[in-house]
């Protein structure tokens, strides 16, 4: 660079050319000499200078933080925008990863609320409901426990057992809540609706596929069964009442029928203890090939061993002879067989696969019940006429009954709920035509007290299962 400047000061163009050629020759000679000696030549030094210039230019364009020279504002804004964009990408990535994590979370079982509103299917997942109390049969049927054939039969019927256990779990959870909240001063309608609303929520009511099994019974004192309040009933529960709470749950027509007696005065405890013990004795006796009269004999013996003192008078506790347990079949609460509470001589045998409601009623009265008061319970008569075409109002009501209840029992409150507000006249016509059967309240002698306990059992091929058994009774 320096030699080239000196050549420019000369006046002669020829001399300038000679000088330029001489300089180029010297430069090439120097480079060759540097290559031979292994030291950097002029070309290498030029490259270094070029690199230094580039580095200096870069440093001036992007100075370090410690450099106090002015930095162009455009560069700062660009770098800030790039940084913000990177931060947004990072934040967006974190948010999307969080969303993905939330989606991956598996839903576990829920817990029950008060009042109960969570369906039991959301608590017990994969249709895995608790078993009831499982009991071996008597000695002559103990072989069933290890029989591979009987075990295979149970596996084939697993869907039936699942439906029954689901309904039984609904019954347990609803009644446990009811026992907490039912208190003197509550109207009978409030009492029933507390139970029925809980049942509908927990079983996930769905037409005839699942729902209430029959109207909630809340019979008081001498009334032993079949009382539920009609629309407009203002009666209230009092401290001195003996209240039989009997309600049902069904899944696919598989009905759980279970009942207990609720009191607030401890003086009734011997009456309740007698009936509870008699029911448990009947359950223990029941089994495949057992005669119905044998169950009744055991129930009677236990029941009559108790007495209760009320207002200074001792009353022997008697079984109500004409109020009994019964077999249950899909969509039929009473399906043919009667389980007596006395030794009535019925030699009919219980059979494998049957479902029974083992219920006993004890009383301080005569031990015989009769029909009384206004009717609230009704049920479609499967043996009666199929229709009543000549009476349009009754025919329309019948269609509603078939749609909402089928062959399950219902009450007037349920008709109201189904939208049949003006149903009395049509209902009477259906009763008169023997299409619907009324079931009035059943009462013992006035001033007496009655109690009830009941469980649903199934006679499985290997063992007996008390489906509705709970920690309460």
Automatic annotation (TrEMBL):
Top-level division of the source organism's lineage: Eukaryota
Q: Does the keyword Hydrolase apply?
A: yes
What keywords tag this UniProt record? Aminopeptidase, Hydrolase, Protease
- Enzyme Commission no: 3.4.11.18
Name of the protein described by the UniProt record: Methionine aminopeptidase 2
- Source organism per entry reads Entomophthora muscae
Which gene name does the record give? MAP2_1
């Amino acid at each position: 660079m320096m030699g080239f400047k000196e050549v420019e000061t000369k006046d002669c163009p020829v001399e300038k050319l000679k000088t330029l050629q001489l300089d180029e020759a010297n430069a090439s000679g120097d480079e060759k000499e540097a290559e031979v000696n292994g030291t950097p030549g002029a070309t290498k030094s030029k490259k270094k200078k070029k690199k230094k210039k580039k580095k200096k230019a870069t440093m001036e364009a992007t100075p370090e933080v410690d450099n106090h020279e002015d930095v162009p504002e455009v560069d700062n804004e660009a770098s800030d925008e790039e940084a913000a964009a990177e931060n947004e990408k990072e934040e967006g990535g974190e948010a999307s990863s969080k969303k993905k994590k939330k989606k991956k979370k598996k839903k576990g079982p829920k817990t029950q609320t008060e009042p109960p509103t969570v369906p039991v299917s959301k608590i017990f997942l994969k249709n895995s409901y608790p078993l009831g109390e499982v009991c071996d049969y008597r000695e002559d049927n103990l072989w069933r426990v290890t029989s591979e054939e009987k075990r295979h039969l149970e596996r084939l019927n697993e869907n039936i057992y699942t439906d029954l256990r689901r309904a039984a779990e609904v019954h347990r959870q609803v009644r446990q809540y009811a026992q907490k909240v039912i208190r003197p001063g509550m109207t009978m309608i409030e009492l029933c609706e507390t139970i029925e609303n809980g049942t509908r929520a927990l079983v996930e009511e769905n037409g005839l596929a699942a729902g209430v099994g029959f109207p909630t019974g809340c019979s008081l004192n001498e009334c032993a069964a079949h009382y539920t309040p009609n629309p407009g009933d203002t009666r209230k529960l009092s401290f001195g009442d003996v209240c039989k709470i009997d309600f049902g749950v069904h899944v696919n027509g598989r009905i759980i029928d279970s009942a207990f007696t609720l009191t607030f005065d401890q003086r009734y405890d011997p009456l309740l203890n007698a009936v509870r013990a008699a029911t448990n004795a009947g359950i223990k006796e029941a089994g495949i090939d057992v005669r119905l009269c044998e169950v009744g004999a055991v129930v009677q013996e236990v029941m009559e061993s108790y007495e209760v003192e009320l207002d200074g008078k001792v009353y022997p506790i008697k079984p109500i002879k004409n109020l009994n347990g019964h077999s249950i079949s899909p969509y039929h609460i009473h399906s043919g067989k009667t389980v007596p509470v006395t030794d009535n001589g019925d030699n009919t045998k219980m059979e494998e696969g049957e479902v029974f409601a083992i219920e006993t009623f004890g009383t301080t009265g005569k031990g015989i019940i009769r029909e009384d008061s206004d009717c609230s319970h009704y049920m479609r008569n499967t043996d009666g006429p199929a229709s009543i075409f000549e009476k349009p109002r009754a025919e329309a009501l019948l269609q509603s009954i078939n749609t909402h209840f089928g062959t399950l029992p219902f009450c007037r409150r349920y008709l109201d709920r189904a939208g049949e507000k003006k149903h009395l006249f049509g209902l009477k016509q259906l009763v008169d035509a023997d299409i619907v059967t009324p079931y009035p309240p059943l009462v013992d002698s006035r001033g007496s007290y009655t109690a009830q306990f009941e469980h649903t059992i199934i006679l499985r091929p290997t063992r007996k299962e008390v489906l509705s058994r709970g920690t309460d009774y």
